[in-house]
Amino acid sequence: MPPSPAPDALPRSELVALLLAAAEGDEPSFSELYRRTSAKLFGVVLRICPDRGIAEDVLVDVYLTIWRRAGAFDPGRASPITWMATIARNRAIDAMRRQPRVAPVAIDMVPEMADCATLAEAALIEAEGDARLHLCVEQLGEPQSGAIRAAFFHGLTYAQLATTMAVPLGTMKSWIRRSLARLKECLHAED
């Protein structure tokens, strides 16, 4: 079962509510929980299980575990995403332990390289930050949110944006400057 595309950002309280409802056997809540968190948890699993087929199987096992153990979730001890990510990490490690071992290679035969992999916790923090950023961009409203997306996510220049959106260059620069100030306020308000 592959993950759902691009999860919507959900506040912690809503994730808690979905998990608690799932603990009571509420299938629509569990389905919504899956829709909102599967991409994030699939990323955790995929970092540990690089084989996509195995990772998808592990993700199914992760959600079966979440469904069965939702009643054990304690919102006072951990955030919902941390609790679910821990389950995903543990299931992925278990799956990798079950895989056949490859013959060891002499260490001097392996080229030196830095470990550039992001830790699962860092990936979760980054994903939560991305979700907050996208939520703040949405709060800007149109046409400012479209201008910010085009400028920073797609690399368009002020001149290209002004031409595309049929506004004077000075207006575009003002939109971007004011929008960035509002984004900064929104992101810091969440802290």
From TrEMBL:
Domain called RNA polymerase sigma-70 region: residue spans: 33-100
Keywords: Sigma factor, Transcription, Transcription regulation
Gene3D superfamilies on file: 1.10.1740.10, Winged helix-like DNA-binding domain superfamily/Winged helix DNA-binding domain
Entry annotated with the keyword Transcription regulation: yes
Residue ranges constituting the RNA polymerase sigma factor 70 region 4 type domain according to the UniProt record: 132-183
Pfam families for the chain: Sigma70_r2, Sigma70_r4_2
UniProt superkingdom: Bacteria
Family recorded in the similarity comment: Belongs to the sigma-70 factor family. ECF subfamily.
Cited NCBIfam families: sigma70-ECF
Name of the protein in question: RNA polymerase sigma-70 factor (ECF subfamily)
Organism: Novosphingobium capsulatum
